[in-house]
Amino acid sequence: MSFELIIAETRGRVGLITLNRPKALNALNDQVMDEIGAALDGFEADDNIGAIVITGSEKAFAAGADIGAMASFSYMDAYKGDYISRNWERVKTCRKPIIAAVAGFALGGGCELAMMCDIIIAADSAKFGQPEVKLGILPGAGGTQRLPRAVGKAKAMDLCLTARFMDATEAEKAGLVSRVVPADTLLDEALAAAETIAGFSLPVVMMIKESVNRAFESSLNEGLLFERRVFHSAFALNDQKEGMAAFVEKRKANFRHD
Ligand code: CO8
């Protein structure tokens, strides 16, 4: 897959998307989001891909939505053009797991893009923030909704209202990121985690992603019921037979992803 503002490649069973607009610190415009969407379409259609990593550069995962592109927007441009919903939701609808590997700035839409992923692994250089308030706007791609779910109301209010940045250590303590690693090992760590996930049964991995996400959309009892039904359905998989046989026979499971 060949793109202009991102690089999409495969590493084993992992699809890797690298944002590639270095001069604008990977600011996210329509073209970037369309290209991410097209890359995700390709990876989702590819049976040989079991997990995806999205990363940026050493200096910036993404410094936000492209401010220049938005500066002259009218209300009608935003509303009729279905700004954000049109091409940002594709990340959310991806059924395969996505890891955001974040170094440097993840601000505004950049932080929101990372939060749309399933796991955030941060370099020790990472800085997260929702500084839209400084621009006379508010977060528009989930910052006021996903951030409080990740870090709680107090910290989400603090970040969104003061525009201050949160470093990687604080982000890990607050629950936004799952691990912090030295910057020079970030991509290796993220790819290794993705490769581990991609080695498990793909349908089971997809069921786990769907079930964990359901926890944020339902009451506890509804979520537990959903989990139980999906759990029962796992016994229809060849991979369940293989996984348990492998345990009993003390060997490594060889999942066929069905
Ligand atoms: N949009 C466009 N260009 C950007 C952006 C951006 N968000 N961020 C940085 N750039 C550009 C700069 O304009 C500069 O370009 P040039 O060299 O041509 O002047 C280049 O990247 C390098 O930036 P700096 O010189 O500013 O680099 P510094 O190291 O001095 O500062 C910062 C780095 C702190 C990251 C600084 O660039 C900054 O504050 N950037 C803006 C951060 C921000 O406000 N982000 C939020 C944007 S609004 C948003 O995301 C809304 C989300 C709504 C939903 C998304 C829908 C699409």
Automatic annotation (TrEMBL):
<dbReference type="InterPro" id="IPR001753">
    <property type="entry name" value="Enoyl-CoA_hydra/iso"/>
</dbReference>
<dbReference type="InterPro" id="IPR018376">
    <property type="entry name" value="Enoyl-CoA_hyd/isom_CS"/>
</dbReference>
<dbReference type="Pfam" id="PF00378">
    <property type="entry name" value="ECH_1"/>
</dbReference>
<comment type="similarity">
    <text>Belongs to the enoyl-CoA hydratase/isomerase family.</text>
</comment>
<keyword id="KW-0443">Lipid metabolism</keyword>
<comment type="function">
    <text>Could possibly oxidize fatty acids using specific components.</text>
</comment>
<dbReference type="GO" id="GO:0004300">
    <property type="term" value="F:enoyl-CoA hydratase activity"/>
</dbReference>
<dbReference type="InterPro" id="IPR029045">
    <property type="entry name" value="ClpP/crotonase-like_dom_sf"/>
</dbReference>
<keyword id="KW-0456">Lyase</keyword>
<protein>
    <recommendedName>
        <fullName>enoyl-CoA hydratase</fullName>
        <ecNumber>4.2.1.17</ecNumber>
    </recommendedName>
</protein>
<dbReference type="GO" id="GO:0006635">
    <property type="term" value="P:fatty acid beta-oxidation"/>
</dbReference>
<dbReference type="InterPro" id="IPR014748">
    <property type="entry name" value="Enoyl-CoA_hydra_C"/>
</dbReference>
<keyword id="KW-0276">Fatty acid metabolism</keyword>
